[in-house]
């Protein structure tokens, strides 16, 4: 990489006071470094340089600001840079206030950086703490996120993944699950937001995380929140169900138009199913889902789905929906104690299933390859 | 002044003075018979105030009232006074009066924004209880404009929108309110209710759309079936006129219009019901058919004549066991009957082979259906009337 002397010189160019063209070239150079892993790792040991990048985001030249943000985004994508960025650059203190500035042109870039930084638990905590210090509550984030047109220059779609990451922390979930406010309810319609899969994915991820705490399931499934239809709509298709099946469905799922499309991103479909599976943990949840005719929706979905991993999740859900109720003492599937030999057997079965899935995926990929080759001819 | 009497313990002749009164009548004394009434007129003692204060009958009260609305006070003071007056009426549930007071208060155009916002908000509440939702909503909006953080106005706005079934509006009002008071239970409740009702309404809209589409498709299929059979539908003058003038609201206007014409035009004085041709589950058509008996100016209406049935099938039943009461000569027997349909263009009459099916006859080259309802003239073969009726007309006999 750079020699010590070169590094010092570079650093001296990365100040607000430096002449514009020199500054520009220096920041461009650093951006280049962040383009690959080695460059990032090198910069990991140069906190002054990282600091300089953060400082230069206030530069009057838009080109330089863009480069600095771009560099910071690249750096934040690398997990090893998380702690240095958060502890040695004052990044959070400087950028968080601008996040919710409706006029700030680079708000989207801040979102992306934050969503990167919050991916893993340790730095996620730092981000969360910094938000609290800046008096930016999660309900405020949700409010801005759900207010399209809040910032005319930034879509703020990446607030979705940020929220999703933050909710891996139980303390963050408390804010989203606040019963005295309208927070989680605002997020629900976005499970169907067509314009951005980032936003959609972020919302679904958030909802899934919120379903980890089964103490909240009753409330989530009640009219106060009514999470179920919003999880099912992306998975429901245009197929007509029988009159009887239709009548039992939640209102939002009745009389869907002929051109109803399902969620196109398989990862999001999988997350939706995982969330539904989480909600079957309690007896009440299972009862509600059975009563609201979730099974027919899943039946049609299973016919339509091609991705093996998603099919597997779907079938897990269906098994619970049509299976018998577990015996006394086992009602809460999350709290059941699994005897050792059963556990071993289950692990063995999981491994077999995993192998089978991978085999299916291989076959599917081969088929697709053959298809595309056919089309090329 | 009379000098004090000697030896008496008196205070300035008070006793004597008082003695005089026992004899004299006080000029303005209350009458013994109507003293309660009189009492009621004195402002201090009246139990209830009269609705309208007539300065002639009640000068004292009118006087006191004018002090309340004294124009020497500042506009703010006057407005405040009117606000209080309105509030008093409101408490008595006299909403109409309270509206008037608040309106007067607003007319003062005082500079106190908060006071005006309160006047608007209170008037909104009064209108709300009177059921004047639009006025109430306008007032709530005006209040909010003056003072965007006036939560009462926002709650009222949400409530009015709810009554007006504008659920999107309710959500907007509630969200504005929740920005100010994120934990307000009333706002949260209103929001949740509106959300639920909106989703119900969305479902109803979808349901209606599905139903309309289904009906549309059925109509299309029906028209296709009719066309497929080579049956010709005639547009009446009315429908032709309507067709050129009316706009289609849906893209499938053609199909529904043609059939709508069928239904609507069938509402003549002859048809008892607005029956229309329909297709059963096996794809067989059933037609509303009219039999005309010009000899006796009678008609028979068969609401669902299966296209595969023959005329004789029906006639055997209609004129089977009992002949109709108007058939005084008892001559309308199935074997004597002759049926004809008229070619509307040329005016020719075509005789119908009674053994043939309805479908067969309808497919005849010169058979045109008016108003989607086939009609047939029934005559008795060889009868005098039949001879007279058919003379001068071109008749094509069946083979």
Task: Explain what you see.
Chain A has helices at 4-13, 20-34, 37-44, 47-55, 62-76, 82-88, 91-99, 107-117, 121-133, 138-145, 159-166, 170-176, 184-187, 197-210, 217-221, 227-232, 243-248, 266-279, 283-291, 294-304, 308-322, 340-376. The longest helix of chain A has 37 residues, at 340-376. In chain A, helix 7 packs across helix 8 (107-117), helix 8 runs parallel beside helix 11 (159-166) and helix 18 (266-279) packs parallel to helix 21 (308-322). Chain A is mostly helical and 377 residues long. Chain A has 22 helices and no strands. Chain B has helices spanning 14-23, 35-41, 59-68, 75-91, 95-107, 113-130, 133-146, 151-163, 167-180, 185-228, 237-245, 253-265, 311-318, 358-362, 384-390, and strands spanning 232-234, 278-279, 285-293, 298-306, 337-342, 349-352, 368-370, 375-380, 395-396. The radius of gyration of chain B is 43 Å and the shape is elongated. Classes of the chains: A mainly alpha (377), B alpha/beta (399). The A-B interface holds A 139, 143, 180-182, 185, 223-224, 226, 251-252, 254-257 and B 178-179, 182-183, 188, 191-192, 195-196, 199-200, 202-203, 206-207, 209-210.
